[in-house]
Amino acid sequence: MKRVALLLILLAGCGADGEPVQPTMAARVGIGSSGAHAGGAVGLNTGRVGLTVGF
């Protein structure tokens, strides 16, 4: 978890020179034979570099 936080901080710092940092978020809900489940992802994109973490 500390590594993920460090990567997010580094990516946010990359946008300090004027390159916009774009946050992303996705959520999903599925229903199957075993019941309902939920999940999602959050991330940061800056230029050609992106980091996404799913849960």
TrEMBL record:
GO terms for molecular function: lyase activity. Keywords: Lyase. The keyword Lyase applies. This is Argininosuccinate lyase. The lineage of its organism: Bacteria, Pseudomonadati, Pseudomonadota, Alphaproteobacteria, Rhodobacterales.
